[in-house]
């Protein structure tokens, strides 16, 4: 079942009881009745049995998707991107440069990608309707390149993982109550790296004019009314991630957190390489391996932080695929930066990446 949460703004919710996925659709409708259709975080194969009928009823089918917007790189929201772009040959992908660096591994056509950084003032304007949307960074919440999108017409702010939550509200429906905050708090304390990143994102939201009437996260309940300001205030005061770590050796613990975050992303996105890496580090005995690994995660370091990180870099540098090597080094760098860990890693040529996507022709849709 889908719901309209704002003018021409719809949500399709997955059926899980404890941790919902939300797929959103915005129709940018012109005076002549034609529309440009934006699909947000299109989900996984598990969503297809509901997603296809949803698209048929709202926009006449998957072929009429014009823009796919990805808030970040996680597979629970990006896995359907390739099949949708194939089924909608006129569609474009819009996402941040950091997200594109990872989702391009799906084999997506680079000439049909536009990075959010390339839009003037982060605004996307539509010619025929005169409507516009704004890209709002949510850096490090929980991904370096996380991006939100604000629809001025409906005053709906799509936030991706930010403001998302585990389901702690009882009852039917899609809208948050005060009971939803517990699940939002738990989700953010588990997955957001630091309070500074959260506060910065809350500040960016508070500066939107007009102020959002609805917050539409990728997980959990849709937030509207007085709860928008209420939950943002609570979020601004919430301790998350590294702020909750209290250990005798905080520097080593931070490195363990960063490595395990990196391992998790590798396991999800590059499973075969991750398996090879775990086997590589478990070959030696207790005196030669740099880590104590339990259930494919680092329990503690056996060497200095710099040396442990160097072992990971050395393994990555042994990979023959240069694109994969660059992507993995970038992911590792992101996780270290999120936790303010100082370590010299090879620089990624982000300017070269950005220039390679600036030549996309988008004039038939926007001005």
What can you see in these coordinates?
With 367 residues, the protein is α/β, with parallel strands linked by helices. The protein folds into two domains: 2-239, Ribonuclease Z/Hydroxyacylglutathione hydrolase-like (Metallo-beta-lactamase, Chain A, 4-Layer Sandwich); 246-339. Helix content is 37%, strand content 19%. The protein contains twelve helices and 15 strands. The strands form three sheets. A seven-stranded mixed beta sheet has the order 1-2-3-4-5-6-7. The longest helix has 20 residues, at 250-269. The radius of gyration is 21 Å and the shape is globular. Mean pLDDT is 88; it is low at 348-364.
Percent of residues in β-strands: 15-25%
Largest sheet: 7 strands, mixed
Q: Please, how many domains?
A: 2
Give the neighbour order of strands across the main sheet: 1-2-3-4-5-6-7
Helix/strand structural class: alpha/beta
State the helical fraction.
25-40%
Name the features.
single chain, 367 residues, alpha/beta, Metallo-beta-lactamase, Chain A, 2 domains, 7-stranded mixed sheet, 6-stranded mixed sheet, 12 helices, 37% helix, globular
Q: Quick summary of this structure?
A:
With 367 residues, the chain is an alpha/beta fold.
Task: Describe the protein's topology.
Layout: E1 2-6, E2 9-13, E3 22-29, E4 35-40, H1 48-59, E5 67-69, H2 75-78, H3 81-87, E6 92-95, H4 97-103, E7 113-115, E8 123-125, E9 132-137, E10 147-151, E11 156-160, H5 180-191, H6 195-206, E12 214-217, E13 223-224, H7 226-236, H8 250-269, H9 271-281, E14 291-294, E15 297-301, H10 305-317, H11 322-338, H12 350-357
Parallel strand pairs: 4-5, 5-6, 6-7, 11-12
Antiparallel strand pairs: 1-2, 2-3, 3-4, 8-9, 9-10, 10-11, 12-13, 14-15
Helix pairs in contact: 6-7, 8-9, 8-11
């Amino acid at each position: 079942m889908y719901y309209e949460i704002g003018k021409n703004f719809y949500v399709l919710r997955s059926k899980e009881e404890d941790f919902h996925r939300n797929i959103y659709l915005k129709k940018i409708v012109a005076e002549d009745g034609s529309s440009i259709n934006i699909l947000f975080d299109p989900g996984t194969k598990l969503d297809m049995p509901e997603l296809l009928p949803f698209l048929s009823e709202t926009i006449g089918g998957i072929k009429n998707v014009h823009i796919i917007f990805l808030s970040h790189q996680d597979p629970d929201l990006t896995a359907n991107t390739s099949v949708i772009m194939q089924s909608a040959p006129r569609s474009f992908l819009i996402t941040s440069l950091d997200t594109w660096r990872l989702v391009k591994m799906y084999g997506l056509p680079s000439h049909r990608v536009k990075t959010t950084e390339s839009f003037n003032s982060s605004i996307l304007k539509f010619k025929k309707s005169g409507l516009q949307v704004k890209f709002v960074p949510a850096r490090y919440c929980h991904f370096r390149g996380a991006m939100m999108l604000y629809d001025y017409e409906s005053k709906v702010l799509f936030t991706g993982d930010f403001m998302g939550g585990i389901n702690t509200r009882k009852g039917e429906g899609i809208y948050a109550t005060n009971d939803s905050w517990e699940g939002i708090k738990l989700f953010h304390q588990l997955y957001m790296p630091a309070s500074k990143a959260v506060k910065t994102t809350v500040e960016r939201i508070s500066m939107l004019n007009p102020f959002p009437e609805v917050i539409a996260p990728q997980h959990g309940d849709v937030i509207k009314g007085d709860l928008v300001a209420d939950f943002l205030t609570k979020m601004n005061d919430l301790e998350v991630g590294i702020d909750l770590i209290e250990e005798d050796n905080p520097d080593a613990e931070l490195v363990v957190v960063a490595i395990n975050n990196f391992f998790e992303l590798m396991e999800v996105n590059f499973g075969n390489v991750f398996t090879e890496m775990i086997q590589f580090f478990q070959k030696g005995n207790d005196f030669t391996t740099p880590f104590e690994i339990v259930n494919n995660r680092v329990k503690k370091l056996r060497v200095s932080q710099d040396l442990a990180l160097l072992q990971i870099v050395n393994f990555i540098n042994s990979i023959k695929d240069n694109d994969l090597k660059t992507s993995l080094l970038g992911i590792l760098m992101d996780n270290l930066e999120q936790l303010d860990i100082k370590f010299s890693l090879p620089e990624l040529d982000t300017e070269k990446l950005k220039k390679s996507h600036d030549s996309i022709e988008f004039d038939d849709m926007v001005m």
